[in-house]
Amino acid sequence: MSGILVVIEDRAGGIARISWEALAAGQQLAAQLRLPVSAADIGAETKSLATEVAAHPLAKVVCVEHPLLAHYTADGFTLALEQLIRAESPAYIVFPHTYQVRDYAPALAARFGQSLIGDVVAIDDGPVFMRQLMQGRLNGIYRHTGNGPCFLSVQAGAFRAESVAEQLDSGSRSSHGTASVAPCSYQGMTSVVPKMPLNEDGALAPEETASSLTAVSIFTPTLDPDRIRTRPGEPFRGGTQTVDLGSAQRIVSVGRGIKDAANIPLVQELATALGAELAASRPICDSGWLPIERQVGSSGHTVSPKLYLAVGISGAIQHLVGMKGSQCVVAINKDSDAPIFEVADYGIVGDLFEVVPALIAAVKAAKR
Amino acid sequence: MKIVVAIKQVPERDAQVRIDAAGKWIEASDLHFALNEPDAYALEEALQLKEKHGGEVVVLSAGPERVATTLREALAKGADRAIYIACDDLGSRDALSVARLLAAAIRPENPDLVLTGLQSEDLGLGQTGVIIAELLGLPHATLILHVEKTETGFTVKRELEEGWFQTIDLPTPALLTIQSGGNKLRYATLMGIKRAKAKEVLTVTAAELAVDAVPVVVLEQVTLPRKQKSTQILSGTAKEAAAALVEKLIVEAHVL
Amino acid sequence: MIPLLPTLAEPQHFSLLEKLLFIALAVTSAVAFWRRFGIVLDKILKSKRDPGFRLFPIGKRIREFVWEVLCQAKVIRERPLPGLAHAFVFWAFCAFALVTLNHCAVALGLGFLSPRGSIGCLYFYFAAAFALLCAFSILALFVRRFFIRPRWLGAKLSWESGVIALLIFVLMASYLASFLVADSDPAARVLWWVHTLALLIFLPLIPHTKHLHLLLSPVTVFLSRGSFAQILPLSDDEDFGLVAGTDLTRLVSLQAYSCVECGRCTEHCPASNTGKLLNPKEIILGLRGYLNEYGPASDQPLLGKYNSQQAVFQCTTCGACEFQCPVGIEHLPILVGLRRGSVNTGVWEDQHGSQLFLALERGSNALGISPVERDKFIEKNALPLFDGTQEYCLWLGCMGAYDPKGREIVLALVRVMNYLGTSYGVLRKERCTGDTARRLGNDLLFQQLAEANLQNLAENKVKKIVSICPHCVRTIQEDWREYGAPPAVEHHSEFLARFVSQLPRTVGPGFSPDIGSEGGRGPQRRVLVAGVEEGGFNPRTKPIAPGGALAPETEQTASSTQPGKIVYHDPCYLGRYRNVYDQPRKVAALAGELVEAPRNRERSFCCGAGGGLVFLGEETGERISHNRAQELVATGAQTIAAACPFCNTMFRDALTAAGEDAPELLDIAQLAARGLPPSDVS
Asked: What is the pLDDT of residues C216-241, one digit of tens each?
């Protein structure tokens, strides 16, 4: 194959948004390097997902299927993908940077004598890959110098799922991705990405409802149950689920600046006034001031509301990752250098104990 | 039960970040170093397992001379032995190379359990533990909050995205990468430090471990992040700023 | 001719039987005495020696002894009337020394002081005068203990005190009565035996009761360490503080047995006054109980049956207990010693405590804030960096560098220093002085911080430090000495006081020279600086539920606040710890007229932040800061002057309970800066 292989991750029976983002990254890389891009689904039964992916112009879509892949295990996925990679010999393997990928991709890369370039936020000519260091206070530019495939994983929200090329009319289909596009840039690295709108749940409605554009093939790895050494249990919730941040349109999020659990009602009042859901950064949930279901960040929810209001949040990278996809970000923090302002559209530098009450009043006044 | 904990000494979390002359890393002269926080949780988990089941906790770290302080701190908190891998070029090695170094030092120990922190606070790769598991042929699991010893091995609690968790059963020996926040960390005590003086610190050089150090991934350059979009800072008194914000959200951003 | 007053009757010719009886009783009494006293002495002597104890220079010890023991200075000064009564009893005992000896000698026919002789006569009348005072005093003290029942003596009635009081009274009464009978009167013999029996019953009771202090406390005062709240270095690699009986030193054991249970320590303790478990008297008596049961060679933990860890960690280290103690007990080394025993061995598991230690382990300050914030503060305000050429190093400390209110204090001081043309600079890097680590008993952390700081200061060639925080001052000057030679350090009140004549006087806002016809009420508008408007560091900030704290009565605040009056609160670490009382007052007086709080100067009531408590979890019971803030507000002053950023932060929170009418809260530096011309704003 050579070319680029994107590994799709399913979540709860559907394709996670971040997988589309990985696909977008793969397509970008493909366009840069003039290489074909393919995708692989992995699981026990992946046909329906594969069809969805195959609705986009790719070189091919591979279903890596085996009954032992029904539930994720590091051993199972590593073995299966190892075999696929040996069979297809891609030059680049692109993963979404999920918990699952972090669990097996480094081992998989090591099997090929390679080292995963993880959590990439931008790809530039070279290719070189940018990732964040020192908790987001530094950017590093990495280059793959080894002989053999290059493994990379992309950060949630760094590539736009909307830009996964849609199926175009059959004439313009090529194995290199799509035609003219608009440039966008991240941190000064200009990249060429195709742009198409996505609907609400991250899927693209194909213009034609014809059968899949791209060929789908099945790959059955050889897996021996003895070689799968871990036994995963069923996922369970930490507490009772009362809130769905993933689909909230407005979120008010509270961080360490709130200083005390007793001050949370103040922010709740703001959330209520705005008709927003209340969320929090990790330290707040760790302290038990809000339940874990309300956590936004790399270890909590990834949200993309229309409005995200960060109150007393400094903007540590683990949190930013969770809310970067928000359409409009407002930050209230007393430190003008807090990283949250980097991603905010609007900011108020001030004491939240003064600003929040004033904001509540202003919002209520505006409603009248 | 023998537990090996691989720890890393990293620049203190709130250090000022300035790029060095070569543009390849941060200026290290003014920095203080400390134990990587997820590794502190890994150590805590190991110590609690030892307190419950007996055995030995061995800490292991690679790097320049200053790493010795962090190893002593780990001994002070209750680890029994330390292994120091003298390595002056840790920064220029990729994750695979570092893992090879650590794995080579761990292998002769034949531990029942290897723990590492989930990721480091400086590079944040989160891979070293997983690669070590691969190199040593150990089953592994990542993002672990809680470890329990069972008849056949271990049952662990793993963190998933969006507030979900999962238990996983593993045989022994195994490797786990530990997420922050699972336990309450203990502080270093005077008694711990005094007892630590008598504890063994074995020094091994990177050369002795004879691992391949040719990097397959190179960090070419570091830069300071730029703001990606302009942020409108609304000034004035709290009242004025709040009013201005509400107006902008209605008129400009169309979100209210 | 004036008839001579009757002289003391002295029975003559004791029969052999009487003499034998007397000897037998005396021996029995002495044996009973020794059986108990011997044990106590043994326990004290078997305790480990105090490392570094120096008997010399002895002059200071003798002076202390004369003043505190013989003159009963502290006993009288801190509780005047009961103190005086006690002093009379004590002096009577002293005066009676020869009387008692003679009394016993008489039985054996060896009386050496004759009431007929002029010396004897004089002496006996001299003793009689004291006997009268003593009898009257002991009666008064009896009434106080059993009828008036002051709180601080404890809720339980002490029957042993009653018995002793009775015996003393009988001793005095029988003595006085013997003036009224003749030698030959059989009543004289009866009185003699009554007196003797009282004596011989009293003697063995001494070591069995708190009256052991009769014998021990003069020794305790004489042997005391002579410093205040001193925390000694640990003696060796196996010393972790007061963990078990084997860690109790002779001095500590002596002090434990000397406690006279007067309750003066408890009376002034901020924790005891606000419903906490901690009671300093009980800490000392707890040690005594431990020694009685287990002895000084025991491995039993000191914190267990007789003392609780919870109580020990409620101490703010304000030092009021040690300051008050009339028998020389040094509570602070004991309390911190007990904390050391828990912390140095990792036995203390407290969420906030661990967090504090971890923050100090990893970072530069106790607040866990990035040092970049300190750099930004310096840069933004263009504070000069210390380069070795300036005269003073201005030490910011954790509060001055990171807390918004602390920063205001620093900036006010900077304004004054600029006005005075002082040469000063701020260090590029500071680490926490380690005060909290020290007071909480974490010797490892404290050593690391002290050594790092001393090295930094030496490298920067710092000779003189001025600091806004009394805790920093104390730690730098006294506690760092264990690890090196700290530079000279003073508190900013001491610095400013030297230049008070150069600073313009001012008056507070709202002051009007014509008070008008409202009888001194003055304008009602107050400048509210208190409250959480800054959202600055105060880990104890909690919105106070209405009625949750004891808010002062509004009518009191509204009608009696007087314009231009300032009440100065003596911080523990500046007042009792450093003896600085007048300098801050001189500085505060620049801005108005001083009034005093009821508990002031050496008796100042703690704000509740000390001993690391400001970083620990929520207090139980009433908040110490609220108790004190109420007192300050009740003085009617318009301004509360503080000299410590921790006091400032504690009162800022507490004053929110006082609402709109609360007095303004300012540091003395801010008061001093008030009068400066605006052009000095940096």
From this structure: 999 999 999 888 999 999 999 899 99
Given this model, what pLDDT does residue C116 score? 74
Is the pLDDT at C1 greater than 60? The verdict is no
Tell me how long chain B is: 256
CATH code: domain of residue A47: 3.40.50.620
Cα(A340)–Cα(B1) distance, integer angstroms:
45
Distant-in-sequence, close-in-space partners of C405: CB < 8 Å, separation ≥ 6:
C399, C534, C536, C645, C648, C649, C652
For residue range C550-562, list pLDDT tens digits in order. Answer: 333 333 333 345 5
Which chains form contacts with chain B, at 3 or more CB pairs under 8 Å? A, C
Task: Calculate the average pLDDT of chain A.
Answer: 83
User: Candidates 3.40.50.620, 3.40.50.1970, 3.30.428.10, 3.30.450.20; correct CATH number of B2-209?
Assistant: 3.40.50.620
Q: What is residue A166's predicted lDDT score, i.e. its pLDDT?
A: 53
Question: Which residues of chain A make contact with B11, given a CB cutoff of 8 A?
Answer: 134
Query: Does the CB of B140 have a partner CB in chain A at under 8 Å?
Result: yes
Last residue of a domain, one of A199, A227, A255: A227
Using the predicted structure, report yes or no on whether residue A316 has a pLDDT greater than 80.
no
Look up residue C344 and give its two tokens: 């140095």
Interface test with B, best of C362, C373, C443, C445 (most B CBs within 10 A): C362
Domain that holds residue A37: 4-227
Q: How far is CA B136 from CA B103, B113, B133, B140, in A?
A: 7, 12, 5, 10
Mean of the per-residue pLDDT values of chain C: 86
Does the residue A83 lie in any domain?
yes
- Helix C16-46, helix C97-107: angle, nearest 10: 140
Which residues numbered 334-373 in C keep a CB inside 8 Å of some CB on A?
372-373
Amino acid at A62: V
Domain C-terminal end among A201, A227, A253: A227
Give the pLDDT confidence of B31-87 residue by residue, as tens digits: 889 999 999 999 999 999 999 999 999 999 999 999 999 999 999 999 999 999 999
Q: Which token pair is A166?
A: 């849609």
C29 touches B at CB < 8 Å: no
What is the pTM assigned to this prediction? 0.81
Inter-chain CB proximity B229 and A345 less than 8 Å: yes
DSSP letter (8 states) at residue C116:
S
Longest dimension (CA), chain B: 69
Q: Min CA distance, A278 vs chain B (Å)?
A: 15
Residue A66 lies in a domain: yes
Q: How many structural domains comprise chain A?
A: 2
Do A251 and A122 share a structural domain? Answer: no
Every domain of chain B and the residues it spans: 2-209, 226-256
Separation between Cα atoms, residue A44 and residue A66, nearest integer Å: 5
Of the candidates A133, A232, A293, the beta carbon closest to that of B123 is on A133
A288, B53, C33, C265 from C161: Cα distances, Å: 53, 55, 18, 19
Q: Is the minimum CB–CB distance between B168 and chain A shorter than 8 Å?
A: yes
Cβ distance A355 to B171 less than 8 Å, yes or no, reads no
B124 touching chain A per CB within 8 A = yes
Please tell me whether residues A218 and A249 are part of one structural domain.
no
Provide the shortest C-alpha distance from residue C338 to chain B (in Å).
Answer: 14
* Cβ-Cβ contacts under 8 Å, B194 against chain C: 237-238
Q: Is the pLDDT of residue B97 over 50?
A: yes
Contact C363 B12 (CB under 8 A): yes
In a domain, A237, yes or no: no
> Chain B closest CA to A233's CA: distance in Å?
5
pLDDT in tens, A249-274: 899 999 988 888 899 999 999 999 99
Taking residues C19-38, what's their average pLDDT? 93
What pLDDT, on the 0 to 100 scale, is given for residue C528? Answer: 26
- Separation of alpha carbons A39 and A5, rounded Å: 5
| Count of residues making up chain C | 682
C contacts of B39 (beta carbons < 8 Å): none
Q: Which of C361, C436, C483 to mutate to test the interface with B (most CBs of B within 10 A)?
A: C361
* Residue C200 reports pLDDT greater than 90: yes
Residue B62 sits at the chain A interface (C-beta within 8 Å):
no
B138-149 tens-digit pLDDT: 999 999 999 999
Contacts of C351 in chain B (CB under 8 A): 184
Instruction: Give the ipTM of the model, two decimals please.
Output: 0.90
